[in-house]
Amino acid sequence: MMDNMAKQAVQDVMTMGPAVLMPQNIRFRRPIDVVDSPALSAPDKRTILAAWASDYYAVDSKPALRQIPGTPEAVSIDDVQSALQELDRRYDL
Fold first, then answer.
1. Which superkingdom (predicted)?
2. For the chain, is the Cβ count within 10 Å smaller at the N or the C terminus?
3. Are 13 and 20 within 8 A, CB to CB?
């Protein structure tokens, strides 16, 4: 049973990406919304933003844009990096 749960969790992460960490009713439009969210811990915010910045979520033929599942539109990698810097600043990371 635990093995099935672990397999399902891995499948969810593969399908949903960092959206699997997000509380059910929260949808982020921009990376800074992750930083501003009171519902997430700093490590969860970093995980979501780091995933958002990864090449895995690069938009085909537009490598400077990223889009994670559940977001309405792609954002620039610069916006994601700025949000990561703001997270570091706010939490002294």
1. Bacteria
2. N
3. yes
